[in-house]
Amino acid sequence: MNDQTAIGPMMARIGADARAAATVLATAPAKVKTHALNAAADAVWDRRAEIIAANKDDLAYGADKGLSPAMMDRLMLDEARIKGIVAGLRSVAGQDDPIGVVTESWDRPNGLHIQRVRTPIGVIGVIYESRPNVTADAGALCLKSGNAVILRGGSESFQSSRAIHACLTAGLQSAGLPSAAIQLVPTRDRAAVTAMLQATDHIDVIVPRGGKGLVGLVQREARVPVFAHLEGICHIYIDADADLEKARRVLVNAKTRRTGICGAAETVLVDAAFHHKHGDILIRDLIAAGVEVRADGILAIAGTTPAAADDFGKEFLDMIIAAKVVDGVDGAIAHIRQFGSNHTDAIITENDATAARFFQQLDSAILMRNASTQFADGGEFGMGAEIGIATGKLHARGPVGAVQLTSFKYLVTGDGTVRP
To answer: Is the pTM of this model over 0.85?
Structure first.
């Protein structure tokens, strides 16, 4: 489908159906939503062979497009990853329902009783690339938070997303909820993305999940409000008081566990005092793990590549890391302020005061101590799943889970109370 005259009406229908479904979800009982999610999890597992077969078609499509190894890894599904999808759906199902929760209440001298209560946002639009598991994560979190969702997956993950979406639809039908609560845009045509970004009548917020190109496009062209992060330029600072074995273990994991996710470390900053004490051991560990180290200054040893100016502040999403020596925690803070993206930054240190300074002076959405940046994930935060990591400061920040997909309203009760 590539006729703009056809896509416009199609997206209008999808939007109207989502808005209607949102009114049903807003008052759906928690147990009904839980049933839908568990039924969807059952369907994903029962249909795992179909999902893997569809994913093979996507992998072939991605190979023809020349996707990088890291992007192909993001795209690939096997039985272990499908187990992860099932576990994520069940984890979200098992969480407390956020809708209707009274987050604050107080009484006024005039006799009014005021409550602030969580409510759904309404209709969420999610635009994402490559990772088909986002179909399940986004669908689950939006359903849990009482929102209808319109999913527009990447062209590479089209067949996998369709197979997973069919399982979500089966869950909704099993619970007696409208199928339009979770809709997948049935075309690869980019005109559908443009239509979503302009759909102020039907969509309340857009969540983009993908690379810099996608997120930048959404932020430039959206008329609908956006939750987004532009890039995951994650730093690890190895402090003078770092435990050597912790530093070695965390750094290699942060870079190599999965290079294509937004929580992968892209720059390592080594305190000059640590380097004086321990030499090039961290750089040698990275090289031994197969990482291309783009090193600056005294870290540029045999086996590394000289760092170019633009290697700092770059999201490689590959087995590449930039490396530089800095002068203490203040040098690290200054570097991260200049080159970071306010996503996730970590310090490795045994010094409480230094860690406190790092946490206080930086304003990243996630700051870590003695832990891999690969933990920058809603599932690892106990949210079951996430739609993405928001680096803005309005409404949602950090992992966007079910609670972050809610708004609130005030309930005010009087007793014939009038204002003088």
So the answer is: no
pLDDT digits (tens, 9 = 90+) for 20-50: 999 999 999 999 999 999 999 999 999 999 9
Comparing CA positions, the residue from 119, 118, 135 lying closest to residue 127 is 135
Per-residue DSSP letter, 102: E
Cβ-proximal residues to 147 (8 Å cutoff; 6+ apart), any chain: 22, 25, 120, 121, 122, 123, 124, 405
Secondary structure of the chain: what % helix, strand, coil (to 5)? 45, 20, 35
Residue 404 Cα distances to 369, 388, 418, angstroms: 24, 11, 35
What does DSSP assign to residue 96?
Answer: P
| Pairing state between β 320-326 and 265-271 | parallel
CATH fold group of domain 234-375: Aldehyde Dehydrogenase; Chain A, domain 2 (3.40.309)
DSSP string, 180-241: GGEEE-----THHHHHHHT-TTT-SEEEEES-HHHHHHHHHH-SS-B---S---EEEEE-TT
Residue ranges covered by each domain of the chain? 4-227+400-412, 234-375
415: Cβ–Cβ under 8 A, 6 or more apart, which residues? Answer: 111
What's the CA gap between 309 and 12, in Å, rounded?
46
- 4-227+400-412 is classed CATH 3.30.390.50: no
State mean pLDDT over 233-254. Answer: 97
With tokens 């949210």, the residue in question is: 383
Which tens digits make up the pLDDT trace of 84-98?
Answer: 999 999 999 999 999
Helix (H) or strand (E) holding 292, with range, is: strand 292-295
Sheet holding 234-238, edge to edge: 305-306, 292-295, 320-326, 265-271, 234-238, 344-348, 366-369
Contact 383, 399 (CB under 8 A): yes
Please, what is the average pLDDT of the chain? 93
> In this structure, what token pair is assigned to residue 75?
């795209």
Residue 308 DSSP label: P
Handedness of CA 91, 93, 97, 99 (dihedral sign): positive
C-alpha Rg value of the chain to the nearest Å: 23
Tell me which residue of 229, 13, 11, 15 sits closest to 122, measured CA to CA. Answer: 15
